[in-house]
Model the fold of this input.
Amino acid sequence: MELATCDESVKKKQLAQRIFDAAREEGIYPSSIHEFYMARGRSEFGGFTVPAINLRSMTYDLARSIFRVAKRHGSGAFIFEIARSEIGYTNQPPVEYSGMVLAAAIRESYSGPVFIQGDHFQVNATKFKENPDKEIEALQTPIADAVSSGFYNIDIDSSTLVDLSEPDLKKQQLLNYDVCARLTQFIRRIEPRGITISVGGEIGEIGHQNSTPEDLHAFMAGLRGKLPKELVGISKISVQTGTTHGGVVMPDGSIAQINLDFKTLKTLSEIARKEYGLAGAVQHGASTLPPEAFNKFPECETAEVHLATEFQNMIYESKHFPADLKKRIYEWLRVNAANEAKKGETEEQFLYKTRKKALGPFKKEVMSLPQETRDAIAAEIEDRFDFLFRQLGAVNKSNLVSRYLRVQ
Done:
């Protein structure tokens, strides 16, 4: 992957600032969803789930599609996000990502708050064990970069530090809530004046053991004990209920059906709201679920659902995506991602698992596709966005958002 030179980084920041200024003139501004979520934590409204969408490629084109869907449905409550790992392998630094999202809002004549989120700012458990302070400092740098780029919503993922070998629940969650508290305090120190950044915590690593009410109580008790009483804490909590990022890939490249524990999701969301004043539980790894699953999230009062891999898949599998480009990408993966191949897996499994890693190296080529090609791919995915917004109940929420959020 080519790294941006210093001059390129400066130019990106200058261009992004011009976009930010133009957006502000049109009444478009990056915003925090914190106050909105706190109102949900007070049970002032409910019955819908906020979609948080990771855009790994064709970010400008797909952001335009999302804004069109949002305008059609008067949505208001929806999030653009990118994970720390995605920033790396898609070669989309925060300032570029937020700039493209706001440029898309301008292009679609959108107005109002735009929620941009840093997803999964994750602690590396191995590096933390070697040097805890160094690993935390290594997280603070990208968090600060994201916040300075208009990411006023940050999800801390220290769930990688949960130690299930400990018999005591509080000890299992100890490092998780301790690091979450330290990073929350850091975020409060650097957040812009007049903005309370929405911070999310996580109690169970996605793809591992399902979360329980006891896990939630242990984490929240520990977190509250670590944070100064006058400091604003987290607004939501991510839980594990049976999903994996990207889904479980079968030998033929298809995605296995999973048994998502909606009962536990509902219970955890209720506890998060009623006992801790949070917006509720957050579900990760949901985009590859079957269509009939999505209307269950509002029924369970899930606060937020994260959607990513399916949109990447739809780009690659679109009939409009050039076959020769896809062939070259796959050839590149066979060479450059060969060390990620697992014994016994099929080529279909290997390519499905690794093709996200090609999005950065081939970013310029995808962005340089003819406009009619990108429009055709985006139109297919826009239909999916429309479906998801309706199934999640994320419609007619603009007035509700305006009620709780002031211009920032």
About this structure: The radius of gyration is 20 Å. The domain at 6-323+371-404 is CATH 3.20.20.70 (TIM Barrel).
